[in-house]
Write a structure and sequence with these properties.
This protein is mostly helical and 592 residues long. The protein has helices at residues 18-50, 56-91, 107-131, 142-152, 160-173, 181-207, 216-242, 252-286, 307-321, 323-345, 390-458, 486-525, 539-542, 566-569, 582-591; strands at 296-297, 300-301, 349-358, 375-384. The chain is elongated, with a radius of gyration of 40 Å.
Length: 592
C-alpha cells in the first residue's frame, strides 16, 4: 500500500527517492534532446522538399511526430515536478524552495551517450561535406577536397586509421603514375585482385573451422588486407571520376547519369574508408563503459559467483546481521523460558517450616538470659497435590500456545527475509546481465540505425533515365516501387529515432534501477554501516565518485556548456514549437 498522509483533496503523497527523481529528470532531458533532433530533421526535410526529394506527406510526418513529442514532454514535465515536490517533502524542505538534482550517479551513462552523439554528429558532418562535392563541374577538385577531409575532419583526427591512410595513400596515388591511364588502371586492379585473393584464402581458412575466430595473426592480416583494398578502390574511383569521361557522352541525361554514378562510387568508397576510423572510435567508446558497482556478501562477489553460492552468501549475511531478526529470535527464547516457569508451577508442593522463639526476662536488663522455659519450637509441614492446579495448568497451556506463535512468527520472518534478499539478488543479477549483454549493444545499434537512415536520404538522387536504378539511390517513385522510396525512408528514420530515444531511456533506467535494487539488497542483508550523519558508508560507490556527488573535473553535466540557457540547465520549460526558416536550416546543415 502507498504511504503518506491523505490530504483533504484526496491526493496521496507518496515518498520518492533521489534516484527515482534523478531518473525522471534525465528522461525529461532526453525528451528535450529528441525534440531538438526532430526539429533538425524538419529543417532538413524543408530543404529536401524544395529540391523535390520528398513531398509534403513526408514533411508532415516529421512535423506530426514532433508535435507528439511536445505532448509527451509536457506530461514528463508534470511528472518530474511532482517528483521534485515529493523529494522535497521526504528531505523536509518547503515545497516553495527551488532545487535541482545533481546527475552524479548517472554521469557515467551520460558520458557514454554524449560520446556516441559526438561520434554520430562527426560522422554526419563528413557525409554532409562529401555530398557538397557532388557537382560534376568541379570534379578535378574532388581529390583535394577529400584529402582535406581526411586530414581535418574531427572523426578521423588523431586516429590510427587516419595515420595509416595519410601514410599509405601516397603510395597508391603514385602507383604507375608515369604510365598511360589504361596501364595505371590495370596496375591498380591487379593490386586489388591480389588482396581479394588473399582475403578469399583467409575466408576459406575460417570456413574450415566454423564457429571459431581466426587466429590473432590471421585476423590482423585480414584487417590490413581489407584496409589496403579500400585504399586501392578509393584511388581507382577518384582517378576515374577525375577523368570526367562523361563529357564525351552526347545525350545530356546519359551524361548526367554517368557523372552521378561515378560520384556515387567515389562517395561510397570514401565512406567505407572512413568507416575504419568510425569503428576505431566505437572501440574507444566501448572502453569507456563503466562496470556496475560490485555487490559483496561474506566475501563473495554475488554478481560473478554461481547462483547457488551467491544465494548462500546473501542468506548467511542476512541471518548474521539483521538486528530485527535477533529481536524475533530473542522473543522466541523468552517464550521458551516462560514455558519453563509455567511448567514449574504445575508441580506439587511440600514445604517444611521450622520456627524457634526465645525470650529474656522482661525489665531485668539481662539481654542474654535465654532459657529453655522461655523458648518454643515449631516444625510445620504443608503440601499440595498437582491435581487441583487449574489456574497454573491454563497458564502453562497459554505459554505453549505463545511459544508456537513465536516460533511460527520467527519462521515467517526468516522466510520473508530470505524472500527479500533472494528477490533483490535475482533482480540485480538480471539487471547486470541486461546491462552487459543488451544495453551496451542496443545503444550502439540505435545510433548506427539513425546514422544509416539519414545516409539513405543523403545519397545522391537518381537523374532522369531508364527504370533501372543503382541500389540505394533515392529517386522518384515510378510505376513500381524501387529502392529508396522516400515514404518508406521517412518512416524508417522516425522509427530509428524513436528506437534511439527508447534505448537511451532504457539505459538510464537499467543503471538507476540496478543501484536501487543494490541498495535494497544491502538494506535487506543488514550490512549498511552509517556515518555520524546517518549516511550509508558505501565504499564501492564512493571510491570513484567526486565529493558531494558532483561531476568530476572535466566532466560536463547536461546543458552545462558555454552559452547554455537556464532552460538547458533546468529542463522544466518547453522550447517554443516553431521550426526555423528553411533557408536558415539549409545553411546550418551545410555548415555542419
Amino acid at each position: 500500500p502507498a504511504l503518506g498522509p491523505i490530504l483533504n483533496s484526496g491526493v496521496l503523497i507518496t515518498p520518492i527517492g533521489y534516484l527515482s527523481a534523478l531518473l525522471d529528470r534525465t528522461v525529461l532531458f532526453n525528451y528535450y534532446k529528441n525534440i531538438q533532433s526532430l526539429q533538425r530533421f524538419l529543417r532538413i526535410f524543408e530543404v529536401w522538399l524544395q529540391g523535390g526529394l520528398v513531398n509534403l506527406v513526408q514533411k508532415g510526418l516529421i512535423e506530426q511526430r514532433l508535435l507528439t513529442n511536445y505532448e509527451a514532454v509536457l506530461g514528463n514535465q508534470v511528472a518530474f515536478r511532482v517528483s521534485l515536490d515529493q523529494l522535497k517533502q521526504d528531505i523536509g524542505l518547503p515545497l516553495t524552495v527551488p532545487i535541482d538534482i545533481a546527475p552524479g550517479p548517472l554521469q557515467p551513462m551520460i558520458n557514454i551517450v554524449e560520446a556516441y552523439e559526438k561520434l554520430f554528429i562527426n560522422h554526419q558532418r563528413v557525409i554532409t561535406n562529401v555530398d557538397l562535392y557532388g557537382d560534376s563541374t568541379q570534379a578535378p577538385l574532388i581529390r583535394t577536397r577529400l584529402r582535406r577531409l581526411l586530414e581535418r575532419t574531427p572523426l578521423l583526427r588523431g586516429t590510427q586509421a587516419q595515420q595509416y591512410i595519410l601514410r599509405t595513400l601516397p603510395h597508391w596515388e603514385n602507383l604507375a603514375k608515369d604510365k598511360t591511364w589504361n596501364e595505371r588502371r590495370k596496375a591498380l586492379m591487379d593490386e586489388s585482385m591480389k588482396r581479394r585473393r588473399a582475403l578469399q584464402e583467409l575466408r576459406e581458412k575460417k570456413a574450415q573451422r566454423p564457429g571459431e575466430p581466426l587466429p590473432e595473426e590471421d585476423q590482423r592480416r585480414w584487417d590490413e588486407l581489407k584496409f589496403e583494398l579500400d585504399l586501392i578502390e578509393y584511388e581507382l574511383a577518384v582517378s576515374i571520376y577525375e577523368r570526367e569521361e562523361w563529357k564525351t557522352v552526347a545525350n545530356e541525361n546519359a551524361r548526367m547519369r554517368q557523372a552521378r554514378e561515378q560520384f556515387f562510387g567515389v562517395r561510397l568508397i570514401f565512406l567505407t574508408l572512413i568507416d575504419h576510423a568510425y569503428v576505431e572510435r566505437q572501440e574507444d567508446i566501448k572502453k569507456l563503459w563503466p562496470d556496475l558497482l560490485p555487490i559483496r556478501a561474506k566475501g563473495v562477489d554475488v554478481l560473478a559467483a554461481p547462483e547457488d553460492e551467491a544465494f548462500l552468501a546473501v542468506e548467511q549475511a542476512c541471518f548474521e546481521n539483521r538486528v530485527d531478526l535477533m529481536n524475533v529470535r530473542a522473543q522466541l527464547t523468552d517464550a521458551w523460558r516462560k514455558i519453563r516457569v509455567a511448567a514449574n508451577a504445575l508441580m506439587g508442593t511440600f514445604n517444611v517450616d521450622y520456627h524457634m522463639t526465645s525470650t529474656t526476662p522482661i525489665g531485668q536488663a539481662r539481654p542474654f538470659a535465654f532459657s529453655g522455659s522461655r523458648t518454643t519450637h515449631q516444625l510445620i509441614f504443608t503440601g499440595q497435590l498437582p491435581l487441583v492446579r487449574i489456574l497454573q495448568r491454563n497458564n502453562y497451556r497459554s505459554t505453549l500456545i505463545n511459544f508456537q506463535q513465536s516460533r511460527r512468527s520467527l519462521m515467517a520472518f526468516e522466510d520473508q527475509l530470505l524472500f527479500n534478499v533472494r528477490f533483490d539478488l535475482r533482480q540485480v543479477r538480471n539487471l547486470a546481465n541486461i546491462y552487459q549483454r543488451v544495453e551496451k549493444r542496443q545503444i550502439e545499434l540505435a545510433y548506427m540505425q539513425v546514422d544509416q537512415a539519414l545516409q539513405a536520404f543523403a545519397q545522391p538522387q537518381a537523374p532522369p533515365g531508364p527504370d533501372s536504378i543503382l541500389p540505394g539511390l533515392v529517386g522518384p517513385v515510378g510505376a513500381r516501387p524501387v529502392p529508396g522510396d522516400p515514404a518508406a525512408l521517412t518512416t524508417q528514420l522516425l522509427s530509428t529515432q524513436a528506437s534511439l530515444l527508447g534505448s537511451q531511456n532504457d539505459l538510464y533506467s537499467i543503471w538507476i534501477t540496478y543501484q536501487i535494487y543494490r541498495t535494497d539488497l544491502y538494506r535487506d542483508m543488514g550490512v549498511m554501516p552509517l556515518d555520524n550523519r546517518g549516511v550509508w558508508i558505501d565504499a564501492d560507490a564512493t571510491a570513484n565518485q567526486p565529493a558531494d556527488n558532483r561531476s568530476a573535473p572535466g566532466q560536463q553535466q547536461p546543458g552545462d556548456h558555454p552559452g547554455a540557457s537556464p532552460r538547458d540547465k533546468f529542463p522544466e520549460q518547453l522550447p517554443p514549437p516553431r521550426p526555423e526558416p528553411a533557408a536558415q536550416g539549409a545553411r546550418v546543415e551545410a555548415a555542419r
